[in-house]
Amino acid sequence: MAQAVASPQDKVVTLAFSQSAGKNQSPKVLAQAQGAGNVAANLASLGVARKGDGGANAALADTDFKEAVLGTITGPFAQAPGILWIFTNNKNSPNNDAQTRERNRDFYNLLHTEPSISKTLAFPLRMPVKGKLFEAQGLMVYALAYGEPAARALDQIMAKGRLSQVLNKPPARLKPVDAEAVRVVPRAVKDAPFMQVSLGADKRTVVLDVNAEKFTPQVGLQATLQNLFFPYVIESAQVAGSVTSPAGRNPLTVVPAQVSNLLPSQELPVEVSFTLPIAQVPSAWSAQALSAMGKQVLIPMNVELGFSGQRLALSPEFQTEMQTLFPGDPISEVFIPPADIRSSRVQIPLLLRVQYPLAPVIAAVCGGLLLLAGFLALGLLGGRSKRFNVVVDGIQRAVVMKPFSKLVLKSQDGQEAGSISRGFSAPRVDRVVDGHSLIVKAK
Fold first, then answer.
1. Rounded to an integer, what distance in angstroms lies between the CA atom of residue 43 and that of residue 137?
2. By the 8 A CB rule, do 156 and 134 touch?
3. For 115, which DSSP code?
4. 285-300 pLDDT, tens per residue?
5. Which of 37, 155, 39, 158 is nearest to 87 (CA)?
6. Helix or strand (DSSP H, E) at 101
7. Are 188 and 194 in contact (CB under 8 A)?
8. Which helix (H) or strand (E) segment is 378 a member of?
């Protein structure tokens, strides 16, 4: 477990816990290391905790989970974010304190209601053992994330998959039970042959491939809702949702909108209908589409599904397993969802991939080449000078002019007679000063 969950830079503290009484202190630090270290060696010297002076004839110590959790947070954690991994067979000692059962309930309540415990997972394991004083059928492993950074770290540990090689059964999620309640698995798009749907590499993102030439804003998505509330049955809930895009938020509909008796991991076929944001889909002639060079333009979106009027119940199969592994222990109470959790939500990334044809790109390139050729021709023409004949005050003379140039003409005595200007063709008279004449002779 330590090798699976700890990275070399993590500070790892190994502690034993029972209940503080007399000389017996709980939790008790056995070792501290950078990285996983050698946990097995650290546990080798651990003995059974006893009350009073701790002598061989003293009664076995009771257990206080809440004390152990708070002592770890204020002690080794120094109130900084961290993950507590708790291993217990949930077996009470002989002649146990009558209040131990109540303390267990306090611990179970702490797992659900303490705001600083941001995420809680439980791994029930079948591991029968028998000793001189007692026997047990199972071992429970709790993972408690103290603080939001620890919750994210716990998510990363679970996502890497190394822990599943040690604990090969999925964990029961104790907290939060109001987020990521279901998973949407897309199957097909209804009545849209030019639109394809798939699941992204992260197994969460719904990818919608759209042909820009055949784009239709209305989407009918055939999918399944999978219950991720292990170990809970969704006895009933109303489903509604919305789609958020760069253009804003639009409602979506789910049919059927009522979920009933959906077992853990069970899937419910549904049809999800929503409208894609037309304004956010670039025109095939837009700069964004042309820059894609006939490939794809990506538009990230988000789907939010909400469950209201939600009623959860512990899976009967899971409850039977708990009674088998931990007979006589109120441990099943830890899995009773809080009564005030009547709604939940799930965020589903949606990626719209718009495929654009090559025709607009080719047309744009050809148009650009023609425009460039025109500018080149204009440049060549613009640099060529030409000779023309003009008559100023009855006297003919020759002038040389470039395209798009202007020339002021003077009489023989040096007085200004007027001006002419030229475009692509022959010059024309712009202005004639009083008392003078100015003519451009045609060839």
1. 21
2. no
3. T
4. 555 555 555 556 778 8
5. 39
6. helix 100-113
7. no
8. helix 359-382
